Every structure is written in C-alpha cells, then in structure tokens.
Amino acid sequence: MERPVFQPVGTPVEELDTPALVVDLEVMSQNIETLHSYFRQAEAKIRPHVSCHQCPNIARLQMAAGGTAGGIAVTTVGEAEVFSNAGFDDILVANEVVTPPKIRRLCALARLNRITVAVDNPQNVAVLSKIAGDAQVTLNVLVDIDAGFGCCGVAPTGDARELARAVHSSPGLDFQGLMSYEGPLLYQNRSELEDETRRRLQLVLDTRQLIEAEGIAVSTVSVGSTSNYDIAGQMSGITEIQAGSYPLMDHNYCRYKTEFTPAAKILASVVSHSVEARAVVDSGHKTTGPDLGVPFLEGVAGATATRFSAEHGILELEPEAFTRLKSNEKVWLVPFDLALCVNQYDYIRAVRRGKLEGFWPVAARGRWD
Amino acid sequence: MNQWYRPQVGTPIAELDTPCLILDMDALDHNMGIMADFYEGKSSKLRGHGKNHKSPALAHRQIRRGGTVGGVCAAKVSEAEVMVQSGIPNVLVTSEIVAPLKINRLCSLAQQAQILVACEDSNNAERLSQSAIAQGVNLGVVIEQETGLVRCGVQSIDQGVALAKTIHSLPGLTFRGVMSHQMMAEPSSNREDRVTEGRRIIQDVIDLKDAITAAGIPVEIVSTGETWSYDVAGEIPGVTEIQGGTYLLMETSYDYMSEFQFAGKVLTTIISVPRPGVAVGDAGLKAVGAMKGMPAVDGQPGVVAESMDANHVVFRLDDGVRLNLGDQVTLIPGQQDAMVSRWDRFVGLRDGKVEAVWDIEARGCHN
C-alpha cells in the first residue's frame, strides 16, 4: 500500500512528498459543472462512470452537481461493493458478470441497492436468473451491444432482440434496456465525431425499436463517453450517458475535448541532473501508468518528458532549461491516460488554491475482482 | 487497500476468483535455486531487488534459499521501510534520495538496519551527511555510475573519484563502494553475446573501483549486474554483488534467459464470447499492463492476447479453438515489476492448489 507522509491540511502543494497524485479541486469542479450543466438541461442524463477515478469523494461531487440518472456506473463487482459501502445505492455494473461466486456477490448487493448488470450471452442470462431467483432478489439487466468497439457485446438488432426476449422472460431478472460502449471516439474534427457517434449509436437505437416492436418496454439506453456526451445526449431515445474521464481528464482526452482542463497531475521531483541536457525525476511507469502513452511535462520551457522506466522519468532539456531544473525541483506531469495513472495510487492529494485539503482514498483501487 | 480476496489454502485453481495474480511455486523455487546454486562458494553474491516483488515474504524466502548477501535492494525509501520492518537487516536503496523529508526517513531507517544509498552528487552527499549527523546515525553510501542506461549516475572516472573523496571525508557517512545498472542493447540467448556485452559494460565500474582504490580509499562493495548478466557479473573479479530482480518471477521480454521459468502470471476468466474466433477475459491494462506489449498466453495453443482495454483482454482464437464463458486463461506479462506493482497480494499455487497467500506490502510505495 502507498505509504505517504500524511502532511497537514494547508501544506503548500510544492512541499508535498513526491511522487504524488494531485487533484486541483477547483479545476475538477469546473469540469464537473461544464458537463453536468449540459445534462441539467438535456433529456438524457449523466451516469458518472467512476472506474476512471475509483474515488467515492469525487463521485459524491458528481452526483451533487445534478443532471444525473440517479446512480453511477462501475466495471467490476468489486468496485460496486466499494461504492455500495460508500453509500451509493444505484449502481450499474457496465460489464458482464459470469462466474457464480461473483453473481452471488452481485445478488447480495442487490439486497441493499438498485443493481443493474450487462449481458451479452443467453447462457449467462440463465445463470443470472437462477442465482437471482435462489437469492430472491431482482437484478436489473441491460443487453450490451457491440456498436463497433470490438470487445464485449452482442451484435445489434437480431441477436440483441433474441437476448432481450430471453432476459424479459427470465424470473429474477428485470429487462431495463440496452447499453453500449461504442469506443473512445477521438476526433479533432467535430463533424467527424458527430457522424461516427450517430452512425454507431443508430445501431443501438434501431435495436431499441425492434425490441419495442415485440411489446417489450425499453426504459434505459445507456451509452456514450466524455468524448461524445453532448452528441449522444441529443439523440432521441438515448436516456443516459456513461462518461467518466471529465472530472479529472488526462493529456490524451484534453487534446480532443478542449472544454475540459486536466485536474489530476503527478507532482514529481528532480533526483538527478548529472548532465546539462538531461534531468531525471522520481516518477516512472509505476507512478504514471504510461501503457498507452507518455505523460506530458507541463510548464517548463525547453524541457520534454521523453522516456520512462519503472521508477524514473527522463526529461530532455534544451539550453534554456539547463539550469532551471535543480536537484529536488518540482515538476508537473499530466498523465496520458487517467484510469491507468489513478490505478497506481491509494490516495489522491486534494488541493485547493495551492494548499493541501486532504488525502482522498482511491477506495476502489485494485478492485478488479 | 484491496482486502477483499484472500483465498483459502487448498483452493483449487479452477475455483479462484479472477483476475488473480498467481505464483507458480515450483517455478519460483526453481528460479531461486538457480541463483543459490550459482553463487554457492563464489565471492560475489546476489542482492535481490525488492522493487520487482515488493513482498517481504518473497525477500525472506529468497535470502533463506541462499546465495545472497543477506539483504535486498529497494528503489524507494518507503519500499526500504517495508523491508526493514519485516526484519531484513540490510537494504541498498538504489535510487538517489534528495528530498529532505526522504533523507530524514532514510536516516531513521539506519537506526534499525544497515542502510546503503546511491549517490551521484556532492551536494547531495553533504545533505545526507548533515541529516545523518543530526539523527546520530551512519549511512553507507555507494556511488552510482552511469554505464549506458542514460539515466542517473556519475559520468566519468574523475567525477567518481572526486565524489568518493567527498563522501569519504564527510562525517555521518561511510563510503562503501560503487554501483551500476545496465540493459543489454540487443537481448540475446547466446551466452557468448551476454558475456561479451556484460564484461564490456561492467568493466566501467571496475575501472572506477580501481581508480578510487588507487586514490587511497577502500572500496568494499561493487554492486552491479542484473538478471541477464548474473552469471557474467558473478564471475568478474572485483564484483561483490549482483542486483538481480526479474529472474524471480520472470517476464516474456527475458524469455532468452531460458534457465529461468515464468513464475508470476495473471489468471483471467472468459466473460464474453461475442463472435466466433474471439473471447474476452476479465483482466486488462489496469491488472496486467502493456509496457512491453501484449502478455503471452500460457499453455493454450491457438489463443493469442490481441488487445487490452482498462479491464478486458481480447483473445483471438485459431480455427477450431473454442473458449466458453467461465473458462480460465493464464497470462504471462511482458514486464513483471510494473505489473506486480498494481497488485496487493500473490496467490501461490502448487499442484493446482493454493499453497500460500502473500501480501505485496510494498505495493504503492512510491515515496
């Protein structure tokens, strides 16, 4: 477990021990307001996907900002347990849960909460139904549709309709509707993003029509992400958007979604500057999660983060930065992918106006189960 | 901390909840045995790197098995704290420690165990000295030399000798020796290549040792080498210890070191079979990582890990290969230390059953 020095509230951020995952609370609040103000006006609602940050305190701020569907989305049963313990009582496990021990845990959660789970397979539907029946609970179910991402999900239209019928007729299960993760749609060009979002989500909406034509009510269609929330949110028939990156953002998403600002950054220290053109910081793979891309070094003219090893980050320096980065100097790294970065930490250092406000547990970290 | 999953000893593998970080205990013991046998009777010894497993249970088992200096390496002060608290008597912190807060913690540790720390800079040496005096301890210091990683360390023999003189003269510090770390430019299974490359790189740190000795300062420790050069560095006169870490759990990028077996793996369960030829497992980038590419699939021909998102791995299946919901697939990581650092415990398996569950107590010890 992370063993930080729990420095006192009010500590200036630059005095925090490093490496540290720091969240600027004002920037985060602005990001939350930007997205939630949209949903306060829209017919569709936001269901915050909290797997990106795993932090109940942040989820609470999201729920308080309004415009929500009344609950959150998670990826695993373990995460659902953590957020249930933290008081969240409407949880969508936006993923398939197939093994009986995990399904029994899901049913135990359903005694306390409104639990919804995704399915893409008729055998799984039968097992869910059996175990929910034995446990005498009702699981809400969404049929998961592959609208082009190519991971989980049943094919749109015919196959999805068959599965919806199976859920609808299964005791212990309550068919609620459809969900899809249509993929991280990252386009600089707004019209391309609109076209691709509409093309993929139309498959889901067509499926909705087919199912309704069977006389089966579809009350929920849960799709979308931070990249296309305001496009998906305008499509008639879509009821909720599962966005998760927007409170904290990351370097990758910020290149495409300019209405948001990175709120989560890693504070690192220079630990070596043995040659002029290179400085080494105390933050590497294990504290930045660079599997999908290298973190971005912010705010040091003439310095670029180029290479990361397990424990170190290497900064290449132009002459203007040769003397700037002295030993123990602090630098800011913006993670490339938020979820993979937060995944490495047990605590978020919550900071307001440059001062520490608290250590916020990343309570669901490591709950892949 | 993830306190959820701690399976009973004796649980069969088929009943393990997933994703699960598993240890093949036979492979683990085999890997420890290779090192113990190799260093038996040699003047050089292994100093296992704690950053790879972050688990005191493994560190103690490694030391008990033999061939070691009786201590470990740690990359971070907090990692060293976990090792010392568990009773490891001797820890080399292989990173430069520059923040005053961390230097304080390091000196506090030196009251409880023999602590060595890497250094590349005379200002840093002075701060270490001041703090050691203030806390009434003595810190052992080794000079890190840069030998091809293009990262930390002194850049020349002259720099190294000057720094050794400074450290030698500072109260509160004891100059103990030199260290270096290196990668092989082009990994090779050919032992001759490893010998040639290993000797070439390690000669730099031997040269530095000789120059410091010639300046009248005794050099007790030459700490260098790693998994790929354990048998090269271990036979170079003057090398006293080898910093091996990857050998213990192994990873696909070290598969050319074929005497070691893959011991650290991730067990995943198929949760979706959405299309013919495709299956999806419940372990993704968060649990496995992909710093050195996709993980390999262990012992299931015709099943290839094609892509991962945060929580899923997508397998491509050859014609005729079928996976069903609930089937287990075992993944071998491309880089084990960046994978282990995401997990809270190892589940040790022998003969298909749980033999031991070990906490990875130094997971998340970034500071």
Write a concise synopsis of the structure shown.
The complex is a heterodimer of chains A (369) and B (367). Chain A is built from eleven helices and 17 strands.
Number of helices of chain B: 11
Poorly predicted ranges of chain B:
none
Mean pLDDT of chain B: 95
The oligomeric state is: heterodimer
Report the span from N to C terminus of chain A.
Answer: 18 Å
Taken in chain order, the helices and strands of chain A follow as EHEHEHEHEHEHEHEHEHEEHEEEEHEE
Structural class of chain B: alpha/beta
Overall number of strands of chain A:
17
Number of helices of chain A: 11
Query: First CA to last CA of chain B: what distance?
Result: 17 Å
Computed CA radius of gyration of chain A, to the nearest angstrom: 22 Å
Using the alpha-carbon principal axes, give the shape of chain B.
elongated
Question: Topology, pairings included?
Answer:
The complex is a heterodimer of chains A (369) and B (367).
Chain A: E1 20-24, H1 25-41, E2 45-46, H2 56-64, E3 72-74, H3 77-85, E4 90-96, H4 100-112, E5 114-119, H5 122-135, E6 139-144, H6 158-168, E7 173-179, H7 190-213, E8 220-223, H8 229-232, E9 240-241, H9 251-254, E10 264-275, E11 278-281, H10 285-288, E12 296-298, E13 303-308, E14 313-317, E15 330-334, H11 338-342, E16 347-352, E17 355-361
Parallel strand pairs in A: 1-16, 2-9, 3-4, 4-5, 5-6, 6-7, 7-8, 8-9
Antiparallel strand pairs in A: 1-10, 10-11, 10-15, 11-14, 12-15, 13-14, 16-17
Chain B: E1 20-24, H1 25-39, E2 45-49, H2 50-53, H3 56-65, E3 68-74, H4 77-85, E4 90-96, H5 100-109, E5 114-119, H6 122-134, E6 139-146, H7 157-169, E7 173-181, H8 191-214, E8 221-224, H9 230-233, E9 241-242, H10 246-249, E10 264-275, E11 278-281, E12 296-297, E13 303-308, E14 313-317, E15 328-332, H11 336-340, E16 345-350, E17 353-359
Helix pairs in contact in B: 4-5, 5-6, 7-8
